[in-house]
Amino acid sequence: MTSSVTAPESATAAVALSGVTKVYGRGEAAVLALDGLSLDVAPGEFVCLVGASGCGKSTLLNLVAGLDRPSGGRIAIDRDANPGLMFQEPALFPWLSVAANVEMPLKLRGVPRAERRRRVAELLETVHLGGFGRRQPHELSGGMRQRAALARTLALDTPVLLMDEPFGALDAMTRDLLHDELERIWSQRRLTVLFVTHNVREAARLADRIVLLSSRPGRIIYETRVAVSRPRRIDAPEVAAIAAEVTDRLRTEVGRHGQ
Ligand code: ADP
Ligand code: MG
C-alpha cells in the first residue's frame, strides 16, 4: 500500500494521529507539549479529549486543524474534510450581522446568492437563531453568539468539527442547552467531532469516547467508552458515574505532577 500525506492510514478513521510530537521553541527554552501521541477517530464518532490545563489539548487540536505543524509523527484527516473549528471565543466579525457572518463561508465557496440566503435561514433555524439574522453579534448573549459561531462552522459543510472548549465561557444552563443542540446536530449530520474540554462532566455528557491526556507532555493515559443512550442529561446517574471515574484518574495524574 502506498502512503499518502492526506488520507488516513486506517481506512476507517476520519482523523488519525500517529506518533505525534510537538516541541515549542528550541534549545534550553524548548517545551515538549505532545509526546508520541496516537489516536484514531472513527467517522461519526464524538471523541472528547480531557486533561489538565497546559497538557497540550489545544496544541493537539491546532495541529489537526492545520494551524500548526507537528514536530514529528503524522496526522491524517479524511480527504474531503476541511475541518470546521470552534473556540471558546466565538470570533464572529463584529461589523457584520449574524446572517452575514453565517453567510461568509458560503460566499467564500462561491455559493450563488439565492442559495446562500436559503442556507443561512436554514442554518439559523438549526441553531435556534431564526429571527436574529439581522442583529449584530454584540446584541446577542454569549450563548447566542456561540450558536451563531456554530451555524457559521456548519456552513462549511464539513464532516469534521474540531472544538476547543467551545462552551467554556458559558453559564451552566446555557451550556446544557448547547449540549442538547450539538448532540442533535452531530447525530442528524453524522459529524465526526473532536472536542477538547477540561470539564469532565461535559465530556461524559457528550462523548462516545473520552480520551484522557497526561500532564505535559501530553500522552494518552486512559480512555473509556461512554455507553449511555442518547439524548443524555448531564445529571443522569450513568453520566455522573463515568465523570467520577475520569475525575479520579485525572486527580491521580495531576497529583503525580504535584500541581
Ligand atoms: P491546554 O490546551 O491543554 O491547556 P496547550 O496546548 O495550550 O494546553 O499548551 C501545552 C503546553 O505548551 C503548555 O505548557 C503551553 O505553555 C505550551 N505552549 C502552547 N503554545 C505555545 C507556543 N506557541 N509557544 C510556546 N509554548 C507553547
Ligand atoms: Mg487549551
Any idea what the radius of gyration is? 19 Å
Count of separate structural domains: 2
Question: Sheet bearing the most strands, described?
Answer: 6 strands, mixed
CATH superfamily of the largest domain: P-loop containing nucleotide triphosphate hydrolases
Structure description:
It is globular and about 55 Å long. The chain folds into two domains: 3-83 and 159-256, Rossmann fold (3-Layer(aba) Sandwich), CATH 3.40.50; 93-157, no CATH class. It is built from seven helices and nine strands. Helix 2 (98-108) packs across helix 3 (113-126), helix 2 runs parallel beside helix 4 and helix 6 packs across helix 7 (237-256). It has helices spanning 57-65, 98-108, 113-126, 142-154, 172-189, 200-206, 237-256; strands at 15-24, 31-41, 46-50, 72-77, 84-86, 160-164, 192-197, 209-213, 220-225. Strand 6, helix 5 (172-189) and strand 7 (192-197) form a beta-alpha-beta unit. 36% of the residues lie in helices and 22% in strands. The strands form two sheets. The protein has a six-stranded mixed β-sheet, sandwiched between helices. The protein has a three-stranded antiparallel β-sheet with strand order 2-1-4, with helices on one face. It is of the alpha/beta class and 259 residues long. It binds adenosine-5'-diphosphate and magnesium ion (MG). Residues 24-25, 31, 33, 51, 53-59, 216 line the site of adenosine-5'-diphosphate.
Sum up the structure in keywords.
6-stranded mixed beta sheet; 2 domains; binds adenosine-5'-diphosphate; binds magnesium ion; alpha/beta; 259 residues; Rossmann fold; 7 helices; disordered N terminus; 3-stranded antiparallel beta sheet
